[in-house]
Structures are given as structure tokens and as C-alpha cells.
Specification:
By secondary structure, the protein is α+β, with helices and mostly antiparallel strands. It is built from 8 helices and 21 strands. The strands form 3 sheets. Strands 7, 8, 9, 10, 11, 12, 13 and 14 form an 8-stranded antiparallel β-sheet that branches. It has a 6-stranded mixed β-sheet with strand order 2-3-1-4-5-6, with helices on both faces. Strands 15-19-17-16-20-21 form a 6-stranded antiparallel β-barrel. It is globular, with a radius of gyration of 24 Å. 40% of the residues are buried.
């Protein structure tokens, strides 16, 4: 799908069919993430008058002589009192071209797990840098995490340009330094934009204060970014979430209905296509593809659909459909990069956990911790015996049943894992399957 223009005759319908861009923000403390998002919401007319009035009132109570737009996203009282972002704050808005979901993620290293959560589903990440400070250790850490999570597009927004007299030299020096650093990472698409979130320069409108910059404003870039090709449209992957059998249906046409519901994780599916069922290895063809609005001629990521098949197969939740000659790996030994997300316990070899992969949930044991990764220096500590809260490392997991998986670099849906505590059912980790 590509960006869709609004239909003046039916604006509600056109908004519903627009594609969605998921973006995450990251940056060091006081780099202006929350202010930037507030400016996007404010200048794109995406906030209500009462919200703006509340922000203006709170700004005055804090003794600030300007409307602090950061208060639009720092919703927790503790965040407002400390002037920092703690939790992942999600905000939604739309323009005539596209709908947006913003994850405002914390900058502190102790909230790495929150950033991993916010960026794991993002199409684009905005890493903010304070023009006065240039690249910091945290800037590099955030850039590394976005590449670890395979966020396809990255924008380095050099903020607070007003405090360096909108200097072209300052901007270009930061861009050059980051380009050199990015050469060590796998960044697919990198864009540099000089902005002032406080004053709105190059956020929604092009700034007259930086005539030397000939690129788009941030919002223009977000509206026109092509994301349809980011999803894997080659490898057909359809994890079964639910088997639909309306036994009580009074409609005779539905009495024998048997469909397999789920979200398309990869590839394009059409009626008549031959597909293979895993784990049985049996093949069949697609008879029909249903959605909540009726049958469709094709399905692709991230559509949620129901498949009707030409043959009766024994299919359960957690099974997967793929192409006969393009199958995921079926393995019980998982190599992955893992972010540990709890302080109630650490991760160490021998630990028993529950793993959730697409729609399949199995038990697992940690066979090996190969190294702990310092996300600031990229140094590998091969002597590490455990991972603690917010730490990242390379692990080997042994699961009780085969998982049908791909490398995370190839498919973020079939290459991602969630780790769950057996006793409490709490999510304690997130992992990205590696190539080997």
C-alpha cells in the first residue's frame, strides 16, 4: 500500500483506507523528543483545544514563559515532575496523506527495555541529537538499538538549531560524524534533518531560518516515505491464530464453514495458490480469503484474514502455512540476540522459560549465554555469566517443540520471540533470531 490522498466526498472512508506509519523516537535526556512530538501534534492540528489549554495552564504553573508542548506526551505525573520520559507514550494522529502511531521512548539506559518495546514494531525511528552537544554515547546506543531491531528507516533529527544560530557547519559536522559511525551498522535508509522543535523549524513547515537546507520538513518526509516494500512480500508465512468453526450457524452456507484465522506475516496469498501446512508437510490450495468485510482477491502483511482451504487438514493454533518450496526453518535450537526486561531475576544458562513465537507457545531452557553486549561500545563480554535488567546478549535456547522461524533480519514477525516467566506469566525478555 502507498499513501492515499483524502477523498473530499467521503473523508471518513479515505482516512480508514490510508496506510499507517509506525514511528519511534529516541534520544538523550533533554534532546527534545517529547517537545518534537508535541510540535507535530500541535502544528498538524491533531490536538483538542482543551488539551492545549491544559498544557498552557500547567506550563504557567511551572513558571515557564512558553507553552511546553512536551507535556502533551509526558503523561505520567512522575514524568512531568522530573521533566523526563519514563514509559513508552503512544500518540496517534493523521494528516490527509497518512495515519501515524508514535512511540515516544525513554532515553535513559535504565529504560532500554522500554525503547526495545517501542521500536520493535516501528517502520521508522527518529533519533534526536542536541545541536549544541553533537553525538553522545546515548545517541550511538539508540542508533545501534534501532538497527538491532531492524527498523527499516532512520532519521537523525539535529534539534535545537536555534541555539547554534541555525549553523550549517554545526549540522554538517554532526551528519558527517554520524555517517562515519553508521558505517559500522546495518542502516537501510538514513536521512538527516535540522530542526528546532521548540519553534517549529523544519518540523511541519520548511524553515526560513535555514535557507541552506534543501531537504523536506520532517512531516513531509514522514508523509511521503515508502514503506510497503519494507515488509517481506516474498516468503509466504501465515501463522494460524484461531480455527473458526461456527457450529451453531443457522445459515446453511456457514454450517460446514471451516476457516483458519491469523495475520499474514510474509508473502502474498491468493485463492488458487498452493500452500503447505506445517508441521504435517501436507499441501493444499487456498479456496477463499475472507476478511471482516468479505472475501478479498489477495492478502499481504499485515492483513488479518481467514483462509478457507480446498482440503480438510488437521490444523491447530500455532501451526503455519507457507509455500511448498519456500519453508521456514523448523528447529528446536534457537540462536538469538536477547534483551532482558525484568529486575526480579536474571537470565543465566539453565534457566527455564516459556517462549512465545508468532502464535505458538512452548517451554524452553537457556542452553548457553555466549556473550553480553555493551550497547554503548559494542564490546562483547564473553565472560558474562548472566544478563540483568536492560542488558543484551547472544544466547542459545532449546525449545520443547520445533518453531517455524526465519532470521529476524529477514522477517521481524517470524524472527522475533517473547520470553515469559513460567511462574508469574510476566514478560521477561525479547529476542531476535540470528542467521546461525
Amino acid at each position: 500500500m502507498t499513501g492515499t490522498h483524502a477523498d473530499p466526498a467521503n473523508p471518513a472512508e479515505s482516512v480508514r483506507h490510508m496506510d499507517i506509519l509506525r514511528l519511534a523516537t529516541a534520544g538523550s535526556v533533554d534532546d527534545g523528543k517529547s517537545t518534537l512530538i508535541g510540535r507535530l501534534l500541535f502544528d498538524s492540528k491533531a490536538i483538542f483545544e482543551d488539551q492545549l489549554a491544559a498544557v498552557e495552564r500547567t506550563s504557567k504553573e511551572r513558571g515557564e514563559d512558553y507553552t511546553n508542548l512536551a507535556l502533551l506526551t509526558d503523561g505520567l505525573r512522575a514524568e512531568r515532575e522530573q521533566g523526563i520520559t519514563i514509559d513508552v507514550a503512544y500518540r496517534y494522529f493523521a494528516t490527509p496523506r497518512r495515519k501515524f502511531i508514535i512511540a515516544d521512548t525513554p532515553g535513559h539506559i535504565q529504560y532500554t527495555r522500554n525503547m526495545v518495546t517501542g521500536a520493535s514494531t516501528a517502520d521508522l525511528a527518529i533519533v534526536l541529537v542536541d545541536a549544541r552537544n553533537g553525538l553522545t554515547e546515548q545517541s550511538r546506543r539508540h542508533a545501534f538499538l534501532t538497527t538491532l531491531l531492524r527498523v527499516p528507516h532512520l532519521v537523525l533529527a539535529v534539534n535545537k538549531m536555534d541555539l547554534v544560530d541555525y549553523s550549517q557547519d554545526v549540522f554538517e559536522a554532526i551528519a558527517e560524524e554520524f555517517t562515519s559511525f553508521a558505517a559500522k551498522l546495518e542502516i537501510g535508509d538514513l536521512t538527516f534533518i535540522p530542526i528546532s522543535a521548540l519553534h517549529g523549524d523544519n518540523v511541519v513547515q520548511r524553515s526560513a531560518n535555514m535557507p541552506w537546507y534543501d531537504g523536506p520538513s520532517l512531516l513531509h518526509h514522514l508523509e511521503h516515505l515508502h514503506i510497503a516494500s519494507d515488509r517481506n512480500l516474498i516468503d509466504v508465512r501465515f501463522p494460524v491464530q484461531y480455527v473458526i468453526r461456527p457450529h451453531q450457524a443457522t445459515d446453511p452456507d456457514l454450517h460446514d464453514y471451516r476457516g483458519y484465522a491469523g495475520q499474514v506475516a510474509g508473502g502474498v496469498l491468493k485463492p488458487g495458490d498452493e500452500i503447505m501446512h506445517l508441521p504435517s508437510g501436507l499441501t493444499t490450495t487456498i479456496k477463499q480469503i475472507d476478511t471482516a468485510r468479505g472475501a478479498v482477491p489477495e492478502a499481504f502483511p499485515p492483513m488479518s484474514v481467514t483462509l478457507l482451504l480446498a482440503d480438510d487438514l488437521d490444523v491447530s493454533r500455532g501451526d503455519m502455512f507457507c509455500r511448498p518450496h519456500n519453508q521456514p526453518s523448523a528447529t528446536q535450537d534457537i540462536e538469538a540476540m536477547l534483551c532482558w526486561m525484568t529486575d526480579t531475576r536474571s537470565l543465566a544458562p539453565g534457566n527455564r522459560l516459556v517462549v512465545k513465537h508468532t502464535t505458538r507457545t512452548v517451554k524452553a531452557i537457556v542452553r548457553d549465554l555466549h556473550y553480553r553486549l555493551d550497547v554503548n561500545t559494542l564490546h562483547r563480554d564473553e565472560t558474562a555469566a548472566e544478563l540483568r535488567l536492560n542488558e543484551i546478549g547472544r544466547v542459545t535456547l532449546r525449545v520443547t517443540q520445533p518453531l517455524f522461524c526465519d532470521p529476524y533480519a529477514r522477517n521481524r514477525l517470524t524472527g522475533g520471540l517473547i520470553l515469559i516467566d513460567e511462574a508469574t506469566s510476566a514478560t521477561v525478555g525479547a529476542a531476535m533470531i540470528t542467521d546461525n
